[in-house]
Amino acid sequence: MTQKVAVLGTGKIGEALLSGMIRGGWAPSDLLVTARRPERAAQLHERYGVEAVSNAEAAKSADTLILTVKPQDMGTLLTELAPHVPVDRLVISGAAGIPTSYFEERLAAGTPVVRVMTNTPALVDEAMSVISAGSHATGAHLTRAEEIFSGVGKTLRVPESQQDACTALSGSGPAYFYFLVEAMTDAGILLGLPRDKAHDLIVQAAIGAAVMLRDSGEHPVKLRENVTSPAGTTINAIRELENHGVRAALIAALEAARDRSRELASGSG
Questions:
Q1: pLDDT at 133
Q2: Fewer CB atoms inside 10 A, N or C side of the chain?
């Protein structure tokens, strides 16, 4: 890990990535950061021992640039970077909805770009980071992106045409589970439990179910059937979920998230 990597616009996700890289063996001397506010840059330097530089300096010095600013700020950042990014730099974008072609059109011809959609569990090293190559990115560039993002969770390569679907399922995915936990907690209160006890019961059920899904190798239908006794409590609950169209609502919700990702990519709002 001798190449220099710069994280530009180091907010929560950028910082999580930075700390994950250091835990994974990257030397702070090989890492650069940029931040909009000087006090934020100083904080990152003090916390991780990394050098804080300007965006232009990062573009000139680092072999890999990871752009973690918000999608609406990406155009301004690229205008600032373009004169300083040599064609051999790897540019990694973490901005939802923005295709690699957007970067390729604004940077030197032939610049390799990799698009990554990660999610907020990066903050606890349990992210899923979905990686796609732009027109000029090679397998080596994808491997470098995997080396970086594996510090905060798992990685998965997909064609860029699947990125909007992955954003709907994985990028936004944690919010759906938080929404479900919120609703189940309210149900627990309605059933007579204190909020803190209902919360603890549901969170542990979620953790246990997730670990079983990950480690058992069983299909989720099989795992659900293992809990569902004939004429029991679970089947009665599932019947009500089906009666209220929960499955159809989830499909519609994910389609809406995918469509919004496409709108962002097209610049239509």
A1: 98
A2: C
- In tens, the pLDDT along 172-211 reads 999 999 999 999 999 999 999 999 999 999 999 999 999 9
Per-residue pLDDT tens over the stretch 121-167: 999 999 999 999 999 999 999 999 999 999 999 999 999 999 999 99
251 vs 68, 176, 255, 257, CA distance in Å?
Answer: 29, 12, 6, 10
Closest listed residue to residue 160, CA positions, set 134, 129, 127, 128 = 134
pTM over 0.85: yes
Q: Are the C-beta atoms of 10 and 48 separated by less than 8 Å?
A: no
Cβ atoms of 45 and 71 closer than 8 Å: no
Sheet of 153-157: strand order equals 51-52, 31-33, 5-8, 64-67, 90-93, 113-117, 127-133, 153-157
